[in-house]
Amino acid sequence: MPLITRRALLASAGAGFFVAASGGAYAGLIEPGLMLNVTEYRLTPPGWPEDLPLSIAVIADVHVCEPFVPMSRVKRIVETVNALKPDLIVHLGDHEATYRFVSARVPPNEWAAAYADLSAPLGLYTILGNHDWWHNADTIRGALDGARIRIMENEAELIEHRGRRFWLGGLGDQLAHLFDRRRRMGEDDLPATLAQIRTKDPMVMLVHEPDIFDEMPARVSLTLAGHTHGGQIYVPGVPNPFIPRDYRGRFRYGHVVEEGRHMIISGGIGMSGLPVRFGVPPEIVMVRLGNEPAVA
Ligand SMILES: [Fe+2]
Predict the structure, then answer these.
(1) pLDDT over 70, % of the chain
(2) Could you give phi then psi for residue 5, rounded to 5 degrees?
């Protein structure tokens, strides 16, 4: 039997430590703190007019806090989104961070003021996420209102764009009240939101958790969701404790098509639970619906 030499043992231990340390540095610092991808989706889902181009920049799950997502990071998000020149900007909630590793809070008025610099012809709309509720929904609403950012909670709005119209809906959070592991109560009201649709114009729906997609009617051309962080730690084939079992195959990340209905799940930007990301770099999602009409 070959015997391993002491030098080889030390070398392999050193290599192991280096891999662990560099992997930790990558997952704790580089991927979550420095990376910011732009992930683009081009699609014309059922019900959306082929000749009505609409670009939507999607921000999700920023979880602003010191030291992991400080104001400098928020400003970079704003600059990145503005450089994309979208028609519409949406934020899918979880503005706040509620995990134990937060060293200091960034006052909501500060990050909300930074978002007020986001610029798009059709404006900026946001919904609230579970961590916004678990922190303090009234405080978050107050900060967003103070920055004149439109909050949607079980509301739908008819928006004019290129001489046409479309509906934008935003749901209340589905995990707003968490009593214990099994008992939870949401603030979402999908029937009341859909009841506001008075015309046949196409619709885009903003939701925080993707779970509601099972109930989303085909009337909604596209559902935009966040919340999952794409698992936050993702190694293909390796089970992920952050992702509920039901999500793993269906609702973890990306473009989901079921029974002709479309949903895009953003991997988001920040973190919850643990201050690490691995295999799911922070991202701005850029959705491009429809096509530019051909010039005669
Ligand atoms: Fe969330």
Answers:
(1) 89
(2) -80, 160
Q: Give the count of beta carbons closer than 10 Å to the beta carbon of residue 255.
A: 15
What one-letter code names the amino acid at 237? G
| Contact predicate 74/82, CB 8 Å | no
Tokens of 50: 């082929």
4 CA to centre of ligand 1 in angstroms = 49
Half-sphere exposure of 76 (CA within 13 A, CB side): 17
- Measured CA to CA, the distance from residue 110 to residue 177 in angstroms comes to 26
How far is CA 192 from each of CA 92, 197, 203, 232, 272, rounded to the nearest angstrom? 19, 10, 15, 32, 30
35-289 has which CATH code? 3.60.21.10
Structure confidence by residue, pLDDT tens digits, 71-88:
999 999 999 999 999 999
For ligand 1, the distance from its centroid to the CA atom of residue 183, given in whole angstroms, is 17
pLDDT digits (tens, 9 = 90+) for 215-236: 999 999 999 999 999 999 998 8
Burial 282-295 (b: 16+ CB within 10 A, else e): bbbbbbbbbeeeee
Report, as an integer, the average pLDDT of 7-29: 58
Cβ pair 204, 263 in contact under 8 A? no
Domain positions in the chain are 35-289
> In the numeric block, which tokens belong to residue 4?
């391993």
User: Distance from first CA to last CA of the chain, Å, rounded?
Assistant: 79
Residue 263 φ/ψ, nearest 5 degrees: -140, 140
173 CA → ligand 1 middle, Å: 9
Which tokens go with 153? 């909670």
CA of 214 to the centre of ligand 1 (A): 18
> What's the gap in Å between 196 CA and the centre of ligand 1?
26
Q: Three-state SS for 225?
A: strand
